[in-house]
Amino acid sequence: MTTINKSGPRPGRGLTHLLVGGITLLIMIPVGWVLVASLKRKSEFFGSPWTLPAGLHLQNYVDAFGGAQMGRYFATSVLVTLLGLVFVLAVSVPAAYVVARYEFRGKSIVEVALLAGLFVNVNYIVVPIFLMLVDWDRALVDVFPDGFFLDNPAVLSLVYAATSIPFTIYLLSAYFRSIPEDFEEAALLDGASRFRIMTRVMLPMARPAVTTVILFNFLAYWNDFIIALTLLPGEGKTLQVGLLNLMAAQKAAADPGRLYAGMVIVIVPVLLLYALIQRRLIQGMAAGGVKG
């Protein structure tokens, strides 16, 4: 019987490690450079850009949060992102469960429409959405003289959720189909309703997929610029739009430290979220790879 030696050298493994290490450096060096630059005083930027700061000049963050209103923009982004996640999960979870488990008339049309929605780039339809909201505000001008649909963070959250529903339903329904029906049959025999089965049986088992859609949708909502710039034209800007205003202001003031502090404020929530859920995300991918 021939044995296969699995402990021998693998040339591909070293190349993979080298490639992963190179990509990691490409990501970490710019992020680290921005973090270091956010702690420098204004006078330190006139020397070499690679020198370390003389001290922790946290005043840049105080100025960014207060003077540049990044704290206000941060609160708006958090509100819009969390509302968007609540809206999209409230609609997509039951819809994905129905698509995965029920047979109904027109199901094939619904599935085709969801697949077609995956190929629609929301940035291409932001102008029609804006014009539609303008028409709705004109129709309600007697009730809301200052407008309701534009400059409303809740409406922006609804737009985010509506445009990400196809992707979310597609991913969740695919995961629901991979769960054996034996669990549902056992719950039905115990007298559980369909809603209880979805919330108490299927949803906990689909936690890896839910974690994945939360991460992807959070990144899409948090990093959006075009939709937020178009639908929030007033003072209630999101963090990304506020960062653009900060960039324009700091070019005139010649104070890059405050600008880099604003960049760190934008980056940190994404890093924190990934640090919190990356273990579950990796576990979910591993479970999906060995399922069935």
TrEMBL record:
It is found in: Cell membrane. The keyword Transport applies. InterPro entries: BP-dep_ABC_trans_perm, MetI-like, MetI-like_sf. GO terms for biological process: transmembrane transport. It is a multi-pass membrane protein. Coiled coil: none annotated. One of its GO terms (cellular component) is plasma membrane. The chain crosses the membrane at residues 15-36, 73-100, 112-134, 154-176, 197-222, 259-277. SUPFAM superfamilies: MetI-like. Signal peptide: none annotated. Residues 74-277 form the ABC transmembrane type-1 domain. Keywords: Cell membrane, Membrane, Transmembrane, Transmembrane helix, Transport. Belongs to the binding-protein-dependent transport system permease family. This is ABC transporter. It comes from Micromonospora arida. The lineage of its organism: Bacteria, Bacillati, Actinomycetota, Actinomycetes, Micromonosporales.
